[in-house]
Please model this.
Amino acid sequence: MVHADASAFPSGITKREAYAQLLEQARSLFEGQRNWVWYNLPIPPSFPLTLIPSFHPTHAHSELTTETARSNLANAASLLWHMYASLPSPSSAVNWAGFYVLDPSSPQRQQLILGPFHGRPACTTIPFTRGVCGAAASTRTTQLVPDVERFPGHVACDGATRSEVVVPILNAGTCVAVLDVDCAVAAGFDGVDVEGLEGLARVLGEGCDF
Ligand code: SME
Model:
């Protein structure tokens, strides 16, 4: 099977069936691939460190990594995007699907940084103290938000978003990233979404080296 076929969701399937296919395709795409997005490549001494997104003056040169690849999180964002597009409303109104990951340059590691996604450009950093993503990361629990305007501190990256679900991705009990899906319709997500997305978050948490 060519990789692009993994995102072909047949029309007329139920949301539960779609999530089952998503998990199956995700497992198969992630096989033999444990990088979520970074390769831990040594950086040559001559490389200008300020060009590295994770650069922080307190880091030793040997601690730094360079971003070179898109892998499991990028493929997962693609699968989610195509799955929602193939489902009826409200799922078809999903306008953002992607990831925020623990910011390696944040001294206390209490900040998220934008990871792979599908949708419009979004805020690049979110502290643990802000927004739905911050709440999911700091409490390590799924946040199902039927009306974003009623969520104190919601970070509005796209004014069209009306509802949102954010699931923490845990690795050995630590939140290493969050999976965020937004919808342009209020109450766009239900328990089936939570169950499906938590399943994907488990596959990613266990299947990637963060
Ligand atoms: N709404 C999120 C921010 C991320 S964007 O929606 C893509 C939040 O409140 O954390």
Summary: Confidence is low (pLDDT under 50) at residues 64-70.
